[in-house]
Amino acid sequence: ESYEFNLEQGLAIVGSPETVIKKLQEGQAKIGYDIFCTNHDIGKMPSDMVNNSIQLFGKEVIPAFEGTLGSGTAKVA
Predict the structure, then answer these.
(1) pLDDT tens readout for residues 33-69
(2) Residues 6+ apart with CB under 8 A from 6
(3) What letter would DSSP give residue 63?
(4) Is the pLDDT of residue 70 over 70?
(5) Is 53 exposed, middle or buried (0-12, 13-18, 19+ CB in 10 A)?
(6) pLDDT of residue 71
(7) Which of 16, 36, 45, 64 sits at a 20 to 30 Å CA gap from 26?
(8) Which alpha helices (DSSP H) does the chain contain, by range?
(9) Residue 75 falls within a domain, yes or no?
(10) The domain containing residue 51 runs over which residues?
């Protein structure tokens, strides 16, 4: 599906690391999930954007959930 479709349907969380953290925390509080399954290649994104997204997620988003995911440790898989 297209990038626009994913956004319109609420199937994608996009934004700055701070925005992504906030949205994930809201979902975590509301639903109680403790696992994130991510897809950084949405709607035929250029590879440099995909790589940047993965880097930012690992460097800035995952550390915000240390101790709150899965076995108690946030990890990059």
Answers:
(1) 878 888 888 777 899 999 999 999 999 999 998 877 6
(2) 12, 42, 43
(3) G
(4) no
(5) buried
(6) 59
(7) 45
(8) 3-8, 17-31, 47-56
(9) no
(10) 3-65
Q: What count of other Cβ atoms lies within 10 Å of the Cβ of residue 21?
A: 19
pLDDT reported for residue 16: 94
* 49 falls within a domain: yes
d(CA 42, CA 44): 6
Per the CB < 8 A criterion, the answer to whether 48 and 55 are in contact is no
Q: Which residues contact 50 (CB under 8 A, 6 or more apart)?
A: 40, 41
Task: Give me the amino acid identity at 16.
Answer: S
Residue 74, domain member (yes or no): no
54 is written with which tokens? 């993965």
Task: Look at residue 28 and tell me if it is in a domain.
Answer: yes
In tens, the pLDDT along 2-34 reads 778 878 887 788 899 999 999 999 888 888 887
